């Protein structure tokens, strides 16, 4: 009797597996962002740059000098399993050093692209605003964030991914009631890339993530984060990097330096500020990762700077990495290090979407990086948050010949036009 039950279970399980993976598999694509001085490949499974592949954060464009090994989106979600116990999903698309655990169905246990957002031809590209040949057949105009046909950047990219095929907890949790073909937690992310070829923003790649709970259930604890491996100075000059950050309030976590206008900025630099010999030892510059908050309540609350490793970690190890407090004494300095950061927890109702913009910024010096970061905040406020108007400054004309001495702070915004 028991053997018969086991056999029936195996048959049913095999049937469900065939349903999940007999579907048309999504096509993994790359796309080139080359709309300004930051030139990099992006991938429709959530990664920016790829190990040992160029261009990966090449700067300046055409130099051949890459500043990143691989960066990838990571999202953690705590849900209640079918048996009432808590399950921690950690989902990523990293090629190296992501979440461990093989997919029992033999496919990548990672983010996968959603079909219908690119031409999906072999050796094709992620959809680009300047190339209708990369669009799916049913697009007649660019599906801009603020309206069809509206292009906010000189170059935009667009793709959507989800966790349908992340099967580490298959059978323990069903994101969609009655649907056994969806294996993940029920997270879908629309990813839009933006670049501007104007002096104030020529060293910036902005990625806008729209995270949606497509499951049938409330998610009380979601954390968005990223793992990245910078190599400041070029792909062969990675052993002497430094990483630090400005957090909420504009306080630099290691030195106490105060930059009130700059928050949620992680930045990396070369210990001796010298690029590799193949780039004639030119000054290496700075690479920043900036969570563009602008009073939306998002902030970086966890930051780990460990040594590089290609080892994959368990979900609970990753959960702890994304949610642990910042302990600067544990930062690996002047080393081949990586950055892992996480935001504050937020909740998502079924069907709710949360937007989280992250900018990758390069600067020749630290002050240049800080100015470029301020430029990004101004541009985002102007183009993506038009309902947030800067305060009106009124300057009264002096009466007759009387002089007036005063200091006036003027807020300004940038546009691509």
**Structural shape:** globular
Contiguous low-pLDDT stretches (5 residues minimum) are 1-19, 412-417
Write down the secondary-structure element order.
Answer: HEEEEEEEEEEEEEEEEEHEEEH
Radius of gyration: 23 Å
**Helix residue percentage:** 10-25%
By secondary-structure content and strand pairing, the structural class works out as alpha+beta
Per DSSP E runs of 2 or more residues, the count of β-strands stands at 20
Strand content: 25-35%
Q: If helices are DSSP runs of H or I spanning 4 or more residues, what is the number of helices?
A: 3
Average pLDDT works out at 88
Largest sheet composition: 9 strands, antiparallel
Measured distance between first and last alpha carbons: 74 Å
Walk me through what this model shows.
Strands 6, 7, 10, 11, 12, 14, 15, 16 and 20 form a nine-stranded antiparallel sheet that branches. Strands 3, 4, 5, 13, 17, 18 and 19 form a seven-stranded antiparallel sheet that branches. The longest helix has 20 residues, at 2-21. Residues 1-19 and 412-417 have low confidence and may be disordered. The N and C termini lie far apart (74 Å). This protein has 417 residues and is an alpha+beta fold. It contains three helices and 20 strands.
Key descriptive features of the protein:
9-stranded antiparallel sheet; 7-stranded antiparallel sheet; 29% strand; globular; disordered N terminus; disordered C terminus
């Amino acid at each position: 009797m028991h053997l018969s039950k086991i056999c029936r279970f195996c048959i049913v399980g095999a049937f469900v597996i065939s349903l999940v993976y007999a579907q048309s598999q999504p096509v993994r694509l790359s796309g080139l962002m080359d709309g300004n001085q930051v030139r990099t490949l992006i991938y429709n499974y959530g990664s920016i740059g790829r190990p040992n592949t160029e261009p990966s954060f090449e700067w300046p464009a055409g130099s051949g000098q890459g500043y990143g090994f691989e960066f990838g989106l990571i999202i953690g979600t705590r849900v209640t399993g079918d048996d009432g116990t808590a399950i921690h999903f950690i989902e990523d698309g990293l090629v190296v050093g992501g979440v461990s655990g093989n997919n029992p169905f033999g496919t990548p246990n990672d983010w996968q692209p959603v079909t219908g957002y690119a031409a999906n031809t072999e050796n094709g590209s992620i959809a680009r605003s300047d190339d209708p040949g990369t669009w799916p057949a049913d697009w007649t105009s660019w599906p801009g964030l603020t309206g069809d046909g509206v292009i906010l950047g000189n170059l935009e990219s667009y793709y959507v991914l989800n966790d349908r095929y992340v099967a580490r907890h298959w059978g323990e949790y069903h994101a969609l009631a009655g649907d056994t073909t969806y294996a993940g937690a029920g997270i879908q992310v629309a990813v839009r890339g933006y670049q501007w070829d104007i002096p104030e923003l020529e060293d910036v790649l902005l990625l806008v993530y729209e995270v949606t709970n497509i499951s049938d259930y409330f998610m009380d604890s979601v954390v968005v984060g990223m793992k990245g491996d910078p190599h400041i100075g070029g792909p062969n000059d990675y052993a002497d990097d430094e990483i630090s950050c400005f957090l909420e309030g504009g306080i630099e976590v290691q030195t106490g330096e105060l930059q009130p206008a700059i928050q949620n900025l992680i930045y990396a630099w070369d210990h001796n500020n010298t690029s590799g010999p193949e780039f004639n030892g030119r000054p290496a510059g700075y690479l920043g990762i900036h969570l563009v908050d602008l009073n939306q309540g998002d902030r970086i609350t966890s930051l780990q700077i460990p040594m590089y490793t290609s080892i994959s970690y368990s979900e609970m190890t990753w959960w702890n990495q994304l949610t642990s407090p910042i302990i600067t004494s544990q930062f690996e300095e002047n080393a081949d290090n990586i950055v892992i950061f996480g935001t504050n927890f937020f909740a998502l109702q079924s069907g709710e979407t949360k937007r989280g913009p992250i900018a990758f910024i390069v600067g020749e010096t630290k002050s240049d990086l800080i100015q470029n970061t301020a430029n990004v905040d101004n541009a985002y406020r102007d183009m993506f948050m038009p309902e947030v108007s800067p305060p009106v400054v009124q300057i009264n004309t002096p009466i007759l010949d009387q002089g007036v001495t005063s200091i006036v702070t003027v807020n300004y915004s940038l546009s691509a036009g």
